[in-house]
Structures are given as C-alpha cells and as structure tokens.
Amino acid sequence: IAATQPSINWHLKENGREHHTSKFSSEELIVRRGQTFTITFNGIERPEQNLIFIAETGPKPSKATKTLATFDISSTVSKEGWSAVVQATSSSSASISISSPHNAVIGRYRLSVQSGTSSPQSLGTFVLLFNPWSSDDDVFMPNEAECEEYVLEEFGMIFAGNKNRISAFGWNFGQFQRDILNICLSIMDRSLYYRQDPVTDVSHRHDPRYLGRVLSAMVNANDDRGVVLGNWSGKYEDGKNPSSWTGSGEILQSWKKSGFRPVKYGQCWVFAAVLTTVLRCLGIPTRTITNFSSAHDADGNLRVDEFYDADGNHLERGADSVWNFHVWNESWFTRNDLGPSYSGWQILDATPQEQSGGIYQCGPASRHAIKEGDVDLDYDSPFVFAEVNADCMYWNYDSATGKKTLIFSKSTEIGASISTKAVGRDDRVDVTSDYKYEEGSAKERDIFKKARKKLGLEDKFDPTAPKQEEIEQKPDISGKFKVAGSLEVGKDLDLLLVLENLQSEAKTVNVNMTAWSTLYTRRQVNHIWKDSLSVTLAPKEEKQFPIKIKYPEYQQQLTTDKTIQVTALCHVEDGIQVLVKRSIILDNPAIDVQVLGEAKVNKEVFVEVAFTNPIDVEVKDCVLQVEGSDLLQGILELRIPPLKANEKSSTKFKLIPSEAGPKHLLVNFSCDKFADIKTFKMVNVIN
Predict the structure, then answer these.
(1) Cα(319)–Cα(323) distance, rounded to whole angstroms?
(2) What pLDDT is stored for residue 459 in this prediction?
(3) pLDDT band at 1 (very low <50, low <70, confident <90, very high)
(4) 3-class secondary structure for 85-149?
(5) What is the pLDDT of residues 323-361, one digit of tens each?
C-alpha cells in the first residue's frame, strides 16, 4: 500500500438510491444488510491483489459473536458471509462491491483494508440496517406499498377518543431527520442489556425479536433512564403535556441534548409513536395500533374488576383498569422461535404498564397467537390477550362493611374498533378481526376458554370471582345516557338519562349521579357535578330526565383529554342495582389551514391558519406550533395576540419544501381555554 492514506468515495447517492436510504440526511454511508454496495478508493497500488477487508462493530469485535468479519476479494458475492468483488480497477484505484449477510448484526461498522503484510488502514465507518426489501431478511415485507408506508413514511395518523367517537391526529415520525439515526444507535447502547453485557447484546442485534423487546423497554424511562417519562396524573407543569407533542423528532433530540435525561412527559401514544420512529429508522416495518376499551389486567386472570360506591363514584380499588383507548405497536418479522404461522405482525408495547422479566417491556407477542388464544407463547401474550379480550365485572363496594356486590358483567366490552392508518392514504383501517373472532360468536368464547385453560385459570377456585347466581341475575330496569346537544368545549353539556322499566309491575328507583373529568385511562381527576332523583316507573314505562352541566361548572375541571365520565347508579327497590355510565369526549373548536398557492421544491409558499374564538370570553396565551418533514426545518412556534369573544385570528407563515411528493403539515393551536387543537394538511409538493 502506498504511504498515503487511501481516499475513499462511498458513492452515497447511488448506494442510497439502491438501498432505500437516500432520505437520511447524513454524510455517512447508510446501507441495508444482505445487499451489495459499491465503494471506490484511490491510493492503493495493484488494488486487485491480496486485499483484505475488515468490518467490525461493537466494543469487542469477534468472529465468534459475528461482530467481526475479515474477507478478501472473491469472484462472486457470498450468500453466507461478507464478500468483496472487484468491479473495475486502474493503476491506483479500485471500485469494489461489498455485500453483507442477510442476518448480519445491524449498527455502525468500522471498515478497514489491509494489503499484503502491512497493517490495516481505516477507510471510515458506515451504518448497516435491516432490509425489508430482501427476501432472505427476517423483516422481509413482500408488498412494496407496505414497505413504503411502514419503513419510509414519516407521517402517521394516531387514533384516539373512544369507541363511540373515534378521532384522529397526525404525527411526524421524522425517522430521517438529521441525527435521529445516531440517537437510535445510542438508545441501543444505553439499554440495561448493553450495560450488563455489551458483547452479548451487540451480538443479538441481528434479531428483530431481540431489538424490538429491548427498544420497548428503552422508549420508556422506567428501569433504564430511557427516552420518555410517563405521567398520568393530569398535572404536567414541570414538563410538556403529553397531548402537546406533534412528532418524535423533538422528543428524541431533547433526550440527547439533555445528556440523555428522560423527556417529560408521555402517555401511550407518545411511547408508541417514538418506538415507531426508532424501529422504522432501523429498517423494521412498524405501525401504531389503537385498541378502544383496552383492558389493563394487572393480576393476570383475564378479568377486569371495576368498583363503584353507592353514589356512583368510580373507586380506585385494585390495579385493573379499562382505558378509553390504548396505543401500541405492530412490527413485521418472522418468528423462527414459534414457527411460520406465527410470523408477520408482532405486538410491541413501550408504555410502562406491567413488568416482564423484571423490567417494563412488552412483546413481541405474535398477533396470530393472540387471535388463536395461544397465550403460552413468548412474549407477554397473556397481557396482550387480556387487553383485547378480558371480561368486565362491575361491582358495588361498601367501604364501611367491605362488602362487594356484582352489578353486572360483560364479555363483549373490551377490545373494540382496533385501528391503524391505511397504507398510502390518510384513512382508518379496522383490524379487530385480526386480533379476535367475532364478539359473541361461539368461536370467540372457545378461544377465551382455551386461553383460560392454558393459563391454568379453569381449574383454580377464584374467591374474588362472582358466583354463578350473581351473573345470572337479571335487572328490572335498563338505562342509558343520550346526548341531547353539541359536544363542544365552551358549550353547556346537555344529556338525557333514559330509564326503562322492563317488568310488568311498577318499580321505584333511586338514582345517584356524578360527573368527573377523567384522563383517557378513565382515571378520575376532578369532580364536576352530582345530583340524585327518585322516580316510580309504571310497568314497561320509559322516562327521560334532562341533565345540564354548564360550561363554567366544568371549564376549570376539564383535563386536556377533554373527557367527562357521567355515572348513574340506580338503586331499584327489591331489585338489583343498575349502573349506567358514559364517557363523553368534547370536541375542540376547529382551526382552518390553507396553502396559498402552489408548493414547489426550494420555493417559498405561504400558509394561512385561521381560528375563531367561539366562547363569550377573551382567550389569551395563544401559541401556534407547526412542523412537517420536508416542508420546514424543526418546529415553528408563533405567538398570537389575545382574541376577544367571537373574534377571528389569521396567521401567515412561509414554507420552503425540500422534496417533492405528498407531504404533511402538522398544526397545533393552544390558548388558556383550549389546549392542543390539532389538525394536519396534506401538501402536494411539485418539482
């Protein structure tokens, strides 16, 4: 080798195009495993002779752990290991195609070259990622449009609300934003697994199963000072309210900037969105999934118990709960450990709910295993099965005597309208039937029994379970809450309590009603209202009772989840109690976004955002936050002057798009009376 250091051309553009990595904004070569990439270097005499390449990764590279490869020039690409094939040479330069095995460890590699007996010379570093476009890779996804969506798409839609009113908001995953890949690599190097045994940890990084599990632990701050700190208290003054984020980039950058201190605060969709960013960035196809009426079965009995006092207040007793919705992830890879039918979508959940193996991590659980009730298969299948299938028991609890009475039980309550974003369009797709057989069908009950049996719950006496005669008791009346007006923040809430006598003799009913503001997890935060009434219902009679909760009554009490739980506990004389409950989500007023003119690459285009204050008082502390990959750098924050009652504001700002194609602009407007009014706008950028 000549005395001069060889100079290298990494062919970033060509390799990036071939490897679907050109969206990364990086000066470093980023390629996918199991596929050749080309480099050219100068300053080597007779380059085609006895060159040896060394590719190594991790702290102590070795051949035994597959973190070190030495390979010389060969005539053909190797299927098994690393290989190098000369494409073209001149007197002092060589163009060489290098290929890695389809199951190589992913991460940052150091590449050096050795000629003859001289010592190796460093050529620099490159990053190797999973390859869903390669049929030999564990993450191979045969459908091109799905690869585009689940690996390359930076915009997502996350579904929220409740099963009666599903809402959606946009999210900027931003996996190709500057420095995000480096942050994802440092997440792996800060995990407990790496800290305990770095050599073994790095050697397992060829396996999406292993990395999915490790990263589900690292995205939450529990145990390992991971990325996001959860907070479900309703009070977020010393951090950012979980509902104010609009993308993962800001969260991951803040984590790095603060010296890797957990970012305050997240709730389930934040954990799921950040995990989507990290896994897409590394090349594992991933999406977010929302499960409505999601069970958190803390004691593993596939049953969720909810307790109410005589006034109808929901009691925080026991660790079980039902959330209006919960967001987790699905990632696509094979399950060589379970067998081919369990490959495909795998459930991962980074929200810290229950410990698994001593730390807060969850999955991968095979979605097929969940549907078939195979809850004995790795990892965390019983917990995920319960999230979509648990039975619900509602109890009346008397704190004076400690006595609990079953009000009713329901087996069709949990796991509704399981949702994800459509491929290639901004729509909701329902995937409930991929998680379970039809509710109420014999097959669905059989699977539930199979799961109970596998968990050893069939034969065990459960002293906390309701007795058969309790379950079979039939109520004398039925009740429901109907909405009688608009459901908007700033307006009075008008409801009707509808009670119907199911019997052919008159019934006297005493009703205790309460309303609380809650989080989306149904955790009560502030008491809003209570009332009671007594009524005698004639045989088969139906009566309606109007209920009004005025805006000033709930305005101070509402959380940013804008959710009010109304409950009526009906005490029927000489009959069993009837619980009527409804979770009501109020809508924020709308904001309107218009793109003024045509959006072209590298040309300015103006956007106008309009908001009208719909209430009778002034709103102040108005802030507009805007972000969008390929439309603007970072996050734009604009302060807006106070708005009087019914006054309209209009704010203009400019974008300079950097890439053609359909791009998404995410807008978040907040003020003292309305938090996090979100919308997104698709902007079609042309060249």
Answers:
(1) 12
(2) 64
(3) very low
(4) EEEEECCCEEEEEEECCCCCCCEEEEEEEEECCCCCEEEEEEEEECCCCCCCCCCCCCCHHHHHH
(5) 999 999 999 999 999 999 999 999 999 999 999 999 999
List pLDDT tens digits, range 218-242.
999 998 899 999 999 999 999 999 9
Q: What is the mean pLDDT of residues 604-632?
A: 96
Indicate if 591-685 has the same CATH topology as 474-585.
Answer: yes
Catalytic residues: 268, 326, 349
Half-sphere exposure of 65 (CA within 13 A, CB side): 18
* Residue 389 in marked binding region: yes
- The predicted model gives 56-67 an average pLDDT of 97
444 known ligand binder: yes
Task: Give one word for 456, left, alpha or beta, with left for phi > 0 and alpha for psi -120 to 50.
Answer: left
**Is 146 known to sit in a ligand binding site?**
no
- Asked whether residue 391 is marked as a ligand-binding residue, the answer is yes
pTM of the model: 0.95
Fold of 591-685: Immunoglobulin-like (2.60.40)
Q: What is the mean pLDDT of residues 403-429?
A: 94
Write down the architecture of domain 474-585 according to CATH: Sandwich (2.60)
The second-level CATH assignment, the architecture, of 7-129 is Sandwich (2.60)
In the three-class reduction of DSSP (H, G, I as helix; E, B as strand; rest coil), residue 200 is classed as helix
Dist. CA 647–CA 619, nearest whole Å:
10
> Tokens 């942050």 correspond to what residue?
183
* pLDDT band with cut points at 50, 70 and 90 for residue 3: very low
Q: Are 134 and 128 in contact (CB under 8 A)?
A: no
Give the pLDDT confidence score for residue 45 in this predicted structure: 62
Angstrom distance (rounded) from CA 513 to CA 569? 6
Residue boundaries of the structural domains of the chain:
7-129, 144-455, 474-585, 591-685
Beta bridge partners of 680: 666
Q: Is the sign of the CA dihedral 180, 184, 185, 189 positive or negative?
A: positive
What CATH code would you report for 144-455? Answer: 3.90.260.10
Please tell me the distance from the alpha carbon of residue 324 to that of residue 307, in angstroms, as a whole number: 17
Query: What per-residue confidence (pLDDT) applies to 233?
Result: 92
